[in-house]
C-alpha cells in the first residue's frame, strides 16, 4: 500500500513493508533532505492536550521541508465558545493540506480521518495509539541495534494509561521479538491490549520485577506514570515512584543494553544514565524529526 | 477610492465599487494566486478575544502569499504587566507591515487605525463591526446566487450582540434587497442599528417568526447566541435555545434557499443541513481565505 | 573574540570592541539586510515568562533574515507534565540552531548555555541580566547622541528588581559616563550590583531625588516598578507610584535630554512625552529589531 495521502491513525495499520519504506526515506533525510519539497503546503496542528516534543518536532519537520504550520490549541480557539470538534476539524481541513492531531480522547484521530478530506496524522490520542512515536522507537532500535528482530525488549512502567508504551509493543510485535511487560499490578496492560497482542502472535510475558528480567534485555523502554490520565488521584498516589531506573538498577544488564524513553520523564529515569552509552532517549528525540519529515513527505508528495 | 494602504474598520466604509474590485481579485485568486507577492511582509495578528476561523484564515492567507505572521494573544503578552493597548499597538506597528486586530471592545479597530502608521484590518470588535466577515458573506452570495441584488434575505438569531449579523445587514443593505430581521424580542436590533439602516435606505422588516417569513427567503443567515457577550447570564438563560434551524424548520422553504452561518455554531443550526444543497457555511469558511488573500494583497501591494 | 557561535548571557561578557562590531553590523542592517542569510536555520524561543516586545522582536528579526521560529511557552508544554528545564533545553537544543530564553529565575540562561550545544541568547532572566536590551539601549544612545562617552545618565526607578536597568548600568559603565542611580530607598541597587559597578570602575552616585539631578542629565532612563517581582505585595504597595516622569518633572532638563524606557510602562512615564523630541523609547523598540537581526546573523553566520 502506497504512502501517498494515507492517514496515520494506529501503528497496526502499517505493514513491515510500509515501515521499511518509511525507514529508508528517513535514512535518506538524515543525510540530506530536499528543503523546498513541501513549499506551498500548510500543515494544521491541532493540539487538544499539552505537548512539547511532538508538536515542536512536527513543526520543525514541516518547516525544514518548506511547509507552513498553523497551530490550533484548545485554549485559544472557538472550542471555548462551544464549537464541536466536528466543526473545528471541518474548518481546519479547509485551511490545511494535512492535519496533525493530539487529543486525550480515545478515537479522536480515527474520527478526524473520517471527517477530513486531507490526510490526518495521529500525534497521540487516548491510551492506545501514538503511531509516529512507535515509528520513531522502531527506527531508533533499527539504527542502534542494526536489526528489528531477535531482541528481548523490556517495556517498563505505565502500561495501562501510557499510549507510547502500548503502541511501542504493537510495533515490536510485528517482528520476532520477546516482550517483557514490566509494571506494578495497578498499571499492567488492559485485557483488550493483551488480547490483541495475542491475536497478532506477539510473544510476551508479564512481570512486576524489572530486576528479574533485566539480565535478558537488549532494550529497556521506560515510561512515565502519567498523573494526568488517572481517573482517581488516590490511585496515582499509590503507584507513583513505584519504580525508578538508575545505574544501580541496571548493574546486571547486558553490556550493550539500550535504555529508551519517549519523554518527558519525571523521576522514573535517573539523570545518571544520560551520559552513558545506554542512553538512547535523546537519540529518539533527534531521530523523531527525521521520521516526521519522511512521513510528511511520503504522505504529501508520495516520495 | 483605491485599496492601497487602506484601513478596514467597518463595512460601511466601502462602496459597491470597492467591493466589486475586491470580489474580482478574489475570483482571480480562487483560480490561481502569486505565492510570493507578499514576501518580506510581516502581518501582526493581535487577538484580544478567542477566535479560530478568523485568526487561522488570516494566517493561511498571509502565508499562501509569502508573508510572515506574528501572533499576539492577550494572555501571553505585556498586557498582563499592565501595558496599555496604545503602547501594544505602537509596538506591533513598529514590527509589522499590516495589523489584524480582534477585540471585544467596540471601537478598538478605529482606535488602532488612528494610532498605527500601517494599515489596520478589523477582525471583529464590539457588537457592530466585522467587516471582513461581511465581505466573505457577500462574496458567497454573489457566487452561489450569481447576484447581490433582488434577494430576500432572512437574518436570524442574535441581532443585538452579534457583530457578524449586524455587519452582514449593513453589507446587503448596499444592494437592493429585502431584509427580514428575525429574532426573539430580547435579541432584536439596537435602536442605533435600526436608525442607521433606515438612514442608508435599507428595506427591512422585523419579526420573531422564522416560520412566517421562511417561504419568501432566498438566503437564510443564522447566527449563534453569544453567551460571552451577555452582561447578565440570567438574560442568556432566558433566550438560549429559543430558535433552532433544522430540516423540519426549513420544510416550506424555496427550493434554492441557501443557509449561511458565520460559525462557530452551537445548537441553533442542525447538522442535518450539512449534507444538503442548502448548506453554504462551509463554503463561507473556504471562500474566507481567498477574500483575505485578496484583501492583504490589495492593501499591501495595491493589486 | 569573534561573534560566531557565541552565547549572549550577560552584557559583562562583551568588550567595547565586541559591541562596536555589533553596532556596525546593525548600522548596515538598518539600511539593508540580506533577507535569506538565515534560510534553513531554526530559532527556538523559550519563554517561561510573559513578554511581548522581546519575543516578537526576536521573531521578526529571525523571519526578516529567512529563519524559522519555534515558540515554546511554559503553559502549553511538557513543563506542565513535570518535565525538568534540563530536559526541555536538551530537546529544544536538538530541534534548533540557536536558542532564545527568558525566565524569571536568575542564572537560567547561564545554565542553558552549559546544557546546550547550540548558542543561547538570554532574553532576560532574574534581576541582573537582559543583555540584548542593554545592547539596544547603548545603540540608541550612540545613534541619538552620536557618542557613548562623556554623558550624564540618570537611571530612574526600580533598580532592585529591574534587570533592564541593571544591565543598562553595566553597559554604560563600560564607557566614560557618570551614572545617577535614582530610586526610592526600597528600590535602590543591591549591594552585589554596587560592588560590581565599583569593581569595573564605574562612576556612579545614588540619590532619591530626580529633581535635584535632572538639570545635569543627557539621558534619563526610566523603568517600571515590576509588581510581579516583589516577594511581598505589601512592599509593592508602598512604592508603587512613588515616581512619575511627565512634562512638569522634566521642565528643568537640558534642551537635548532624551528619555528612554525599555517598556512596558504603566504610569511612571507620562504619555505627554510621546510626541516631544525627548522621546526615545519607541526608537529603542524600533532599533531593537535591527540589533537582534545583527546578533542572530553574527552568531549563526559569523558576519
Q: Could you walk me through the main structural features you see in this protein, from its secondary elements to its overall organization?
A:
Three copies of one chain form a homotrimer. Chain A has 303 residues and is of the alpha/beta class. Chain A has two domains: 11-129 and 286-301, Aspartate/ornithine carbamoyltransferase (Rossmann fold, 3-Layer(aba) Sandwich), CATH 3.40.50.1370; 131-281, 3-Layer(aba) Sandwich (Rossmann fold), CATH 3.40.50. Chain A is built from ten helices and nine strands. In chain A, the strands form two sheets. In chain A, strands 7-6-5-8-9 form a five-stranded parallel β-sheet, with helices on one face. In chain A, strand 6 (177-182), helix 7 and strand 7 form a beta-alpha-beta unit. The longest helix of chain A has 21 residues, at 281-301. The first copy, chain A, is globular and about 55 Å long. The mean pLDDT of chain A is 93. Chains in contact: A-B, A-C, B-C. The A-B interface holds A 40, 42, 68, 70, 72, 76-83, 86-88, 90-92, 94-96 and B 35, 47, 50-53, 56-57, 59-60, 63-64, 73, 75, 224, 226-228, 263-266, 271, 282, 285-286, 289.
Amino acid at each position: 500500500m502506497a504512502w501517498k495521502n494515507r492517514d496515520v491513525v494506529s501503528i497496526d495499520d502499517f505493514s513491515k513493508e510500509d515501515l521499511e519504506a518509511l525507514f529508508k526515506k528517513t535514512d535518506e533525510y538524515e543525510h540530506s533532505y530536499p528543503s523546498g519539497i513541501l513549499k506551498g503546503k500548510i500543515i494544521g496542528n491541532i493540539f487538544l492536550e499539552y505537548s512539547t516534543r511532538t508538536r515542536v518536532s512536527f513543526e520543525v519537520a514541516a518547516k525544514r521541508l518548506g511547509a507552513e504550520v498553523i497551530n490550533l490549541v484548545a485554549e485559544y480557539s472557538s472550542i471555548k465558545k462551544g464549537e464541536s470538534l466536528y466543526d473545528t476539524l471541518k474548518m481546519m481541513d479547509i485551511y490545511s493540506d494535512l492535519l496533525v492531531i493530539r487529543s486525550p480522547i480515545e478515537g479522536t484521530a480515527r474520527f478526524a480521518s473520517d471527517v477530513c478530506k486531507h490526510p490526518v496524522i495521529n500525534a497521540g490520542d487516548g491510551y492506545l495509539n501514538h503511531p509516529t512515536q512507535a515509528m520513531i522507537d522502531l527506527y531508533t532500535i533499527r539504527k542502534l541495534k542494526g536489526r528489528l528482530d531477535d531482541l528481548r525488549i523490556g517495556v517498563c512502567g505505565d502500561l495501562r494509561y501510557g499510549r507510547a508504551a502500548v503502541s511501542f509493543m504493537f510495533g515490536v510485535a510485528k517482528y520476532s521479538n520477546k516482550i517483557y511487560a514490566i509494571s506494578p499490578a495497578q498499571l499492567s496492560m488492559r485485557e483488550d491490549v493483551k488480547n490483541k497482542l495475542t491475536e497478532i502472535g506477539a510473544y510476551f510475558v508479564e512481570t512486576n520485577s524489572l530486576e528479574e528480567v533485566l539480565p535478558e534485555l537488549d532494550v529497556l523502554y521506560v515510561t512515565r506514570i502519567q498523573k494526568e490520565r488517572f481517573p482517581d488521584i488516590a490511585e496515582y498516589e499509590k503507584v507513583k515512584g513505584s519504580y525508578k531506573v538508575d545505574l544501580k538498577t541496571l548493574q546486571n544488564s547486558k553490556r550493550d543494553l539500550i535504555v529508551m524513553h519517549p519523554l518527558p520523564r519525571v523521576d522514573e529515569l535517573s539523570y545518571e544514565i544520560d551520559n552513558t552509552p545506554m542512553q538512547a532517549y535523546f537519540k529518539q528525540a533527534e531521530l523523531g524529526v527525521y521520521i516526521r519529515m519522511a512521513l510528511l513527505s511520503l504522505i504529501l508528495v508520495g516520495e
